[in-house]
Amino acid sequence: MPSTFDIDYPSLQRHVAPLSITAAELHGSLCGFLCAGGQPTPGQWLDQLRIDPAGLDGGSRDDLEKLRRSTIHQLDDPELGFALMLPDDDSGMAQRVNALSQWCGGFLGGYGLGAPAVAGRLSDDGKDALRDLGRIAQFGYEAGEEEEDENAFAEILEYVRVAVVLLRQEGLPGETATSATRH
């Protein structure tokens, strides 16, 4: 799935280096916050995620604001065009698996900061999705057959993407666990 971000992963990684967080963790945190019904305020959303923005220059702040806007747009895309901000396919498998684990860990942290009451009204599928994201956050990488690794990673990545879309729909204001699933 093509990315529609206004910034690429290596650039985002350079911008967030002073924050002691990875690009994957930051994007996961933002997505989790949004999926739990959080409202990331322009210019203040890093504080909302409990990330100290000290050390960011103006250009970094501008690019992070673009990330916030494009993430909201993707999560609300009626065509389900959401994509995770991760290293591209040219990166090594170990780097991609590690970034996916960090992304899922960030998602869970952001979700907890968003609106904790949302978790209490999740459907069984939503609860399963959160549990699975927790398991994926614990992943490590052990080399196997390259083609099998690529296929397995692609399947897990698609599962995470769909799980996030489900959690976003269930976390929208006014949604209920029974009415939130739209296909």
From TrEMBL:
Family stated for the protein in its record: Belongs to the UPF0149 family.
Highest taxon of source: Bacteria
Organism phylogeny: Bacteria, Pseudomonadati, Pseudomonadota, Gammaproteobacteria, Lysobacterales
InterPro entries reported in the protein's UniProt record: YgfB-like, YgfB-like_sf
Gene3D superfamilies: YgfB uncharacterised protein family UPF0149, PF03695
Any Pfam family hit: UPF0149
GO cellular component terms attached to this protein's record: cytosol
Protein name: Uncharacterized protein
